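Q: I'm writing a short explainer about AIM24 family protein for a general audience and would like to include a description of its predicted shape. Could you first generate the structure from this sequence?
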Amino acid sequence: MNQPLAGYAPAPVTARMENHGNHMLKVAMQTGNDLLARVGSMVAYEGFIQYEPNPPAVRQIARDWITGEGAPLMKCSGDGLLYLADYGADVVVINLNGDGISVNATNLLAFDAHLTWGVERVKGLAKFAGQGLWNTKISGQGWVALTSRGKPIVVDCGGGEDETYVDPDALVAWSPNLKVKGKRSFKAQSLIGRGSGEAYQMAFSGQGIVVVQPSEDSTDRLRFRG
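A: Of course. Here's the predicted structure. Afterward I'll give you a sentence or two in plain language.
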């Protein structure tokens, strides 16, 4: 291999999911250990890997995702190495050890198919959102990959009395055991968010983390649904 290009070759496999650089995910695939990934996220693979877009198990769980749409997921199965990406976004790999994570749908890249997952209403926000907000909760023992528009910050809420406030357009994921509530602020609207009208933040408290991206991409954020 040309010496300058050799530095871009994938490193030996050491885990089920690993980063290849900041913007690509490498997954070690094995028969019987299927993966659910965002449709269209496959950029390359080695070996024998098959894809099934929107499989029956996904359609059944995702009926409540949003009216008239299914979850944009595909089942990946087989043996080899699978490489995933999402338009150059940073990739964040999480190894769940019996705990869980609540994720914005647009930031969900891939996760082990055996994990428990579903679409749930975010409690404490209905009076602010009108009809409520929906998010994807994943839990169990296994791997999850998220995307972030830029290098994210992981805020440890610490279990103290102080709340952590986040612009919903910059929110990626959070620990599902955190308490969540909405806050409106007219005075802060010139500082938070890119839209017009009153400012709206999500307040988190308790023991857990919040993942925030350095981008206020308001396209298809938290799911609104009645």
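A: For your explainer, you could say: The first helix runs from residue 3 to 6.
Q: Perfect, that's easy to follow.
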